[in-house]
Amino acid sequence: MLDLARNAGTDMPTSLATVADNEHLSRGYLEQLARSLRTAQLLRGTCGRGGGYRLSREPEEITVRSVIEAVIGPINIVECVENPDVCDRSDRCECRGIYALINRRITEALQSFTLGDLLDPERVRCLTARATAATVVPVGRSQRGKSAARARQRSAARRGGDSGGCPGG
């Protein structure tokens, strides 16, 4: 979608072969994604020579949430939050409220970003900094837990850094 968003101001559609080359993805996989994105009316296709895909709207009007939900369906960390009938414990589950809150916060976060935001590195940096500053420490977290976390960070810094949980650093 970002490859298509980069070309949003041009009259030429972008081919899946071009996206596959740029992003090092298989064309078959991209065809599956394109089908879902067309069904969600996020893409328009043009057939024939010189054909390809265009965004159906401006990048600033397409949220990250709409892209993700078009491809994988509604955000739902556990099925019982949206469909309580799948679990015989859903009416008495102590965790279900927290799962619903997590779903809502993830959905709100994804709704707050657009493809246009992702195209602007400075905007991404600002949004990330703002989100980091707004991080809330869970209620009930002990001072001992905070001290242990700081000690782990200092230890990682002495070892030369921390990958932050990201594969490959």
Characterize this entry briefly.
By secondary structure, this protein is mainly alpha-helical. 53% of the residues lie in helices and 5% in strands. It has a two-stranded antiparallel sheet.
Structural features, described:
The model is unreliable at 155-169 (pLDDT under 50). This protein has helices at 2-6, 16-23, 27-39, 64-72, 79-82, 96-111, 115-119, 121-133, 143-158, and strands at 43-46, 52-55. The chain is mainly α and 169 residues long. It contains 9 helices and 2 strands. A hairpin with a 5-residue loop joins strand 1 and strand 2 (52-55). It has a two-stranded antiparallel ribbon with strand order 1-2.
Percent helix? 40-55%
Structural category: mainly alpha
Low-confidence stretches: 155-169
Q: What is the averaged pLDDT score?
A: 82
Count of individual beta strands: 2
Annotation keywords:
169 residues, mainly alpha, two-stranded antiparallel sheet, 53% helix, 5% strand, globular, disordered C terminus
Topology:
Elements: H1 2-6, H2 16-23, H3 27-39, E1 43-46, E2 52-55, H4 64-72, H5 79-82, H6 96-111, H7 115-119, H8 121-133, H9 143-158
Antiparallel strand pairs: 1-2
